[in-house]
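LOG
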Amino acid sequence: MQMKKSIHRSLLIMCFPAIALLFLFQYVPMFGVILAFKDYRYDQGIWGSDWVGFKNFEFFFSSQDAFRVTFNTIFMNLLFIVTVTVGAIFLAIILSEITRKTAVKIFQTTLFFPYFLSWPVVAFITFAFLNVDLGILNRWLEKLGFDFILWYQKPELWPYILTIVNFWKQVGYNTIIFYAGIMAIDRSYYEAAEVDGATKNQMRWKITVPLLTPLIVILTILALGGIFHSDFGLFYMVTKDTGTLYSTTSVIDTYVYRSFIAVGDVGMSAAVGFYQAIVGFLLVITVNTIVRKINAENALF
């Protein structure tokens, strides 16, 4: 009993730095939500500025671009969630079936490396492929006898380009998570299936995927919670903020940033950020409730 208390005390002490950082960087900034309901003036400060109710929210919802940027945000995020999740599961299963440890380490490092690259570096790499005159893709098209493509003037191509770029950068991180999940599966399931004559494909579909389902559901719920948020670096830097691409690449975050640069109103930016947080929270609660009704064991909470 005394030993258990000692272990719990040690674990609490180890958690303290993480809890302190969580409180400092996640909970304290929530105070800034108040700016969404104020006509913020730098000379009067937060408390001195006038209350304006929901006036700051009208900026976004009365905009002609509101539907377009909201659609782009949801559509692109859904595309990212589906492609990265399916791709990561596929790669994790392949990785789990490689028996040579050296090969596994090489594949893990290769897949994980893009995750550590910053968006400016990824934007530069993308530009090296898509540049009109010196881009690698246009050079290949030239050798194959095709005309150059003005990539940065073709908005219809960018949902595909951004999906590929996001997949390349993010799939390694998710693959490692699913790979860890597969490694935690009891090997006796596979041994019993092998004795019964199950093929590799049957073991993947009848053992691996069903036992990974709780992990897939939890990660999907968490991803859906951020579906109204976009990766600013991906949509702003990779597209080089090209005006001709706005019809398919402008999302809520980049729209607010451009509006803030043009108008300089802190309250309007805070209002949209608050709107994104509330919708994300409601989505997590809704999806988790649906999952809990279908199968309580797969729910996040």
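LOG (cont.) second protein
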Amino acid sequence: MKPLTTEEIRAVIARGKLRDTIFKALGVFCLALALVVIVALITDMVMKGSERFTLDFFLNFASRHANKAGILSAWVGSLLVMLVTGLAAVPLGIAAGLYLEEYAKRNWLTEIIEINITNLAAVPSIVYGLLALGIFVYQFGFGQSILSAGLTLALLILPIIIVSTREAIRAIPAMIREGSMAVGATRWQTCRYHIIPYAMPGILTGVIIGLARAIGETAPIITIGALTFIAFLPPAPFMGEPAAGLFDWVMAPFTVMPIQIFNWTSRPDPAFEINAAAAGFVLMAMVLSMNGVAIYLRYKLRKNIKW
């Protein structure tokens, strides 16, 4: 091969720098385009729904009259469904990820499970709704309740939590495990006092991303039969006459923010579009708040990690 001259080497380097510059400019353009779209959407929602940002909008139930309709049952339902989803998915997802990464033997069965978990993260959400309709609603008899909705969304985000947990655990240096076991700690003690605390920032990020996806899902909730018009709240524990039980609310009918927005946007009266825009902004604020909490916790926990 003929050696390159000094001019040819300079030309190769110049072409490489030109490609870097073009790629950088393309990346900045894509990022700016995405930000412009997001800002435009937020601005449009705020401008359309600004007149409905009142206390009554948050404290009123749904109504046939647009100016009297509110999102009380929707945002309360969303919070309760997210509570069930978090309680069901987070412990199970973290435990499954920890087991697969730290305890499971490397064989064909483990590989099949890992491949299926990864693929499940890409399954359309409507499929989870159909699965939940058959299992939770009809087979287990939970009905069209908060419990069914929470467990459905838990199934939806479970692969996300498992995958993020495994990735967070893999990022921990092997010397942490070796050092712990060298002083006589068991595998569980190593996981309890070293692996889980060090992996917690990454795990929390996956959990919040999963919950942020779940709170905006509509298809699986519609599939299991969420109500589109509801003018009451789930029974509060030990309240009412006769007094409700501690967990009676989990079996109550419900609606959630995406369902409420879908209901308003499908109505012919243009006045409901204002309500839909205001509710959409509230839902987005809830999602951004959850992401903000995740970023804060990740930053807070990472400050304490030193290796």
